[in-house]
Amino acid sequence: MRARTLLPAALAATLLALTACGSGEDSASVGDAGASPSKAPSPAESPVGSAEGGSGAEGRKLPEALNFTATTVDGKPFDAKTLAGKPTVLWFWAPWCPTCKGQAAETAKVAADYQGKANVVGVAGLDKNAAMRAFVSDTGTGSFSHLSDEKGEVWKRFEVTQQSHYVILDKNGTTVYEGVLPGGKGLAEKLAAVTG
């Protein structure tokens, strides 16, 4: 009889430990139907400034999601901590993808409309840098930064497994939406919801 009492208690304790109940971390994504749950790194924070997490000039905390560096398609260094404090759209695309080409005009329009209020960054992958530069030139999306993620490091960081994918972070670096937006439609409304 004692084993019957202990077994459910042990199972409950194990389940609570596995689900991190009470940890204060919320992994649910805010968005609409069709949006995937949040896959970005947890919003654990470290101070902006040094690589070791020293305090930055403004004393802001750096969201873990923005704790990475990359190179742009133009070969310039890119530090994601510069995105901290504003909502950010990460647009994951591939140069040969017709769906991505179809999203380019709307994404560029949103980047222009929200300049100064939010960040829009393209994250190119699944091809070589020359093809990525050609895509930016051909689609007229050179008004905002595009990362050359040939090795897929940023894609892996956000667990993106397909091109033509958007990840929207709020000003605290928490993922509030991720998914596909055909033609980029709905991107402006989703960004408006986090810019206030």
From TrEMBL:
Residues 33-50 have a biased composition (Low complexity). It holds the Pfam family AhpC-TSA. Coiled coil: none annotated. Keywords: Signal. The keyword Nuclease does not apply. The lineage of its organism: Bacteria, Bacillati, Actinomycetota, Actinomycetes, Kitasatosporales. It comes from Streptomyces vastus. Residues 1-22 form the signal peptide. Gene3D superfamilies: Glutaredoxin. This is Protein disulfide oxidoreductase. Residues 59-196 form the Thioredoxin domain. InterPro entries: AhpC/TSA, Thioredoxin-like_sf, Thioredoxin_CS, Thioredoxin_domain, Thioredoxin_ResA/DsbE_sf. Residues 27-61 are annotated as: Disordered. PROSITE patterns: PROKAR_LIPOPROTEIN, THIOREDOXIN_1, THIOREDOXIN_2.
